[in-house]
Amino acid sequence: MKRYSAFAIAKEALRDHTGWDRAWRRATPKKRYDVVIVGAGGHGLATAYYLGKNFGITNVAVLEKGWLGGGNTGRNTTIIRSNYLQDPSAAIYEKSRSLYETMSQDLNYNVMFSPRGVMMLAQTEHEVRGFKRTAHANALQGVVTEFISPARVKQLVPIMNIDGPRYPVLGALWQARAGTARHDAVAWGYARACSDMGMDIIQKCEVTGVQSDGGRVTGVSTTQGNIACDKLGMVVAGHSGALADMAGFRLPIESVALQALVSEPIKPCMDVVVMANTVHGYLSQSDKGEMVIGGGTDGFNSYTQRGSFHHIEETVRALIETFPMISRLKMLRQWGGIVDITGDRSPILSKTPLGGCFINCGWGTGGFKAIPGSGWAMAELMARGRSPLTDAFGLNRFREGRFVDESVAAGVAH
Ligand SMILES: Cc1cc2nc3c(=O)[nH]c(=O)nc-3n(C[C@H](O)[C@H](O)[C@H](O)COP(=O)(O)OP(=O)(O)OC[C@H]3O[C@@H](n4cnc5c(N)ncnc54)[C@H](O)[C@@H]3O)c2cc1C
């Protein structure tokens, strides 16, 4: 793989950019791989990458029914933070956040990680108590967060109205090294690095069945033929239930639409990310100047990748009290993704009832931030059969009642 650098750009500029390679090879499936990963979203690609980088397993195929990064990875609002309440969550999300800090250098691909700070507004007394509790928990977990006053909120985000009649701002949980990254670049960077290690990334290759023998996975049927494998990783977010069905087990999971929208581009006016959980909306400004707005999930299950109109109306209406300037903005685009939500709002990284078959799902509305940490942990789970980062997130927790309850920390889309 040709390294990207200032020198390479200068050299290519002198010869009309004719010397760049494809970022990743176009591959056709082989008959057999050591590991097959289903789903070329961020989590699937990161899993493949760390299988190669950390464990030297490179006879790997990543199968994608559509185009790489075209699922939730390319549809999210890119908020990255790690200030969760429970210890196992803080551990995996903080691992992930710290990997984001060096991802561009690690992948030699600019993922535009911007640690601009994320604040979660407390707009009820209940939230003040909850966020103070989370700040204390984070202090014990070694995650750097603080509870800040309304005056400090106003100082960080001058365009905010902190004295709203319904929901005044009473403070915020602030993580200064949280932020955003460019979602497509995360998928593309991992894909390029995987391809460079000799892995096959096969797009337009839908998995339609899972083959097994004596309780162990032996391969998958796809729209490009049968592919044998020793180990199978299912990393398909909103379609996890369908994949599990093919492998003969059920998941405690629901698939629902979550949507986001962006405004017309405007001059820089806000250089942090704001989440307002009570009014159910969140806001950041993209490098292009668009205000990126996310809301809540639809109240019913679906696979439509669209989301209903009343949710957009509700989200924007709710945010206007805190950000009155939004009322004068034109909205440019809206889109949706299908997120996979568990009862305790925590992910599933687990072995499954089918031998050799592993599942990574349940990141719901908040899995973009987890991509590198999840890939790191899932690779370890698949290579060694166990990872300390995934111990608490097994499927058995639903049978044993050991929930990792993050419904307060993850109750809003982010
Ligand atoms: C509107 C919106 C806003 C969000 N905002 C944030 C945010 O700000 N911060 C945050 O942390 N998270 C956010 N999220 C959540 C985040 O996007 C997801 O948790 C994360 O991207 C999941 O990544 P993934 O790789 O597991 O899934 P995906 O990116 O969805 O990848 C799964 C892939 O599997 C493929 N697939 C499915 N079935 C098959 C099959 N049978 N065969 C082959 N391939 C298959 C799909 O085509 C897809 O490409 C948001 C999500 C949405 C929808």
From TrEMBL:
- Keywords on record: Cytoplasm, FAD, Flavoprotein, FMN, Nucleotide-binding, Oxidoreductase
Domain (Rhodanese): residue spans on this chain: 35-79
What biological-process GO terms show up in the record? tetrahydrofolate metabolic process
Under SUPFAM superfamilies, the record lists: FAD/NAD(P)-binding domain
Q: Does the keyword Ribosomal protein apply?
A: no
Cofactor(s) annotated in UniProt: FMN; FAD
Q: Does the keyword Nucleotide-binding apply?
A: yes
Q: Which GO terms describe its cellular component?
A: cytoplasm
Q: Which reaction does it catalyse?
A: sarcosine + O2 + H2O = formaldehyde + glycine + H2O2; sarcosine + (6S)-5,6,7,8-tetrahydrofolate + O2 = (6R)-5,10-methylene-5,6,7,8-tetrahydrofolate + glycine + H2O2
* MF (Gene Ontology): nucleotide binding; sarcosine oxidase activity
- The protein's Enzyme Commission number: 1.5.3.24
Major place of residence: cytoplasm
Recorded hits in Pfam families, A to Z, give: DAO
Q: Which InterPro entries does the entry mention? A: FAD-dep_OxRdtase (IPR006076), FAD/NAD-bd_sf (IPR036188), Rhodanese-like_dom (IPR001763), SoxB (IPR006278)
Name where it's found: Cytoplasm
In the record, the note on similarity to other proteins reads: Belongs to the SoxB family.
Q: Which protein are we looking at? A: Sarcosine oxidase subunit beta
